[in-house]
Amino acid sequence: MQAKLIDGKALAAQVKAEAAAEAAALKAKGVTPCLAVVLVGEDPASQVYVRGKAKDCGECGIDSRVIRLPEATTQAELLALVAELAADRAVNGILVQLPLPAHIDEKAVIDAIPPEKDVDGFSPVNVGRMQIGEPCYLPCTPAGCVRMIESTGASIDGKHAVVIGRSNIVGKPAALLLLAKNATVTICHSHTANLKELCRSADILVAAVGKAGFVTGDMVKPGAVVIDVGINRGADGKLHGDVDFAAAAEKAAFITPVPGGVGPMTRAMLMKNTVQAAALQNGLA
Ligand code: NAD
Question: Which candidate among 91, 110, 181, 241 keeps its CA 20 to 30 Å from the CA of 1?
Fold first, then answer.
């Protein structure tokens, strides 16, 4: 392997330490940041994520309120809870763990979270603000990706960044954030004709596809920075990224591992957003 590893765990610890220092400064002014996490149903992966978020809050000096609701919760009941949390001045951030059960309209629920408490950065107002470069909560996964790229010391400005995937929560916002850093950005997706060639010209390659080993070694430009967002559970029960790590690491200059890469950074960025929300809501930003 020639690539240097971008250690998501170490960088996440650094970001969480920043959040903890900011939370302590707020506490000294009488404000304790608080994140409410709502979990509907019994999805095992979601349960793990929610436990992780509560643990992160504890480590950063942020209060957490985890509200677990049964699978049969109606949309009206969930919306009523979101309205209650929206009105609660002690709650600074509201996160509804996705995916929601099929009988609930995710969009309606996300839309019900007021923009100032939307620490996931998924609501239309936050997305719009990000698009035009106004202050907003940046979506945690893409913001974590950018922080990881910057941690390498490699410049983003003027580079060709290729993002594979165009979801609203990863691909599209990752492309926008890289554009805001003056990269020349190409978004690839399931209908892209010459995907391999485009990837091969990428100085920065962000893979957010959801297919294990999708990015093969021959798709990586020598010296590239490779960010693997994918989390795919293999038949072996282990987590695999979207990138063939061993082959890509032979070519890249920097690469993120899975696990231990983008995942921990996503969690850490949520802590930053929650502290930022508490500061903004209390006129202390
Ligand atoms: P998604 O399914 O919403 O989007 C996948 C995207 O990949 C789509 O835009 C689609 O066009 C594209 N795609 C699918 N097949 C393709 C192909 N053959 N060629 C080119 N593009 C193709 O998924 P998502 O929510 O964006 O998540 C992507 C991956 O990232 C998943 O593995 C998910 O688990 C992971 N993820 C990780 C984190 C984290 O914290 N590390 C956070 C969110 C998502």
Answer: 181
Give the ligand 1 atom nearest the CA of 242: 32
Q: Ligand 1 centre from 147 Cα, in Å?
A: 19
The one-letter amino acid code at 119 reads V
- What's the pTM value of the predicted model, to 2 decimals? 0.97
The token pair that represents 240 in the structure block = 């695999």
Q: Does 120 qualify as catalytic in the annotation?
A: yes
| Confidence at 249, pLDDT banded by 50, 70, 90 | very high
Looking up tokens 């490699």 gives 154
Q: What is the largest CA-CA distance in the chain?
A: 56
pLDDT score, position 127: 97
Could you tell me if the CB of 262 is within 6 A of ligand 1? yes
Catalytic residue among 16, 56, 117, 120: 120
Between helices 262-281 and 140-151, what is the axis angle to 10°?
Answer: 110
CB of 175 within 6 A of ligand 1: the answer is: no
Could you give the count of Cα atoms lying within 13 Å of 37 in the half-sphere of its Cβ? 24
Ligand 1 closest atom vs CA 166: 9
Phi-psi region of 241 (alpha: psi -120 to 50; beta: other; left: phi over 0): beta
Residue nearest to atom 19 of ligand 1 (CA): 190
Give pLDDT tens digits for 10-65: 999 999 999 999 999 999 999 999 999 999 999 999 999 999 999 999 999 999 99
**Tally of CB atoms within 10 A around 22:** 22
The verdict on whether 53 is a catalytic residue reads yes
Residue environment code for 99-133, b if the CB has 16+ CB neighbours within 10 A, otherwise e: ebbeebeeeebbbbbeebbbbbbbbebbbebbeee
Average pLDDT of 91-110? 97
From 187, 191, 231, mutation site for ligand 1 pocket: most ligand atoms within 8 A of C-beta: 231
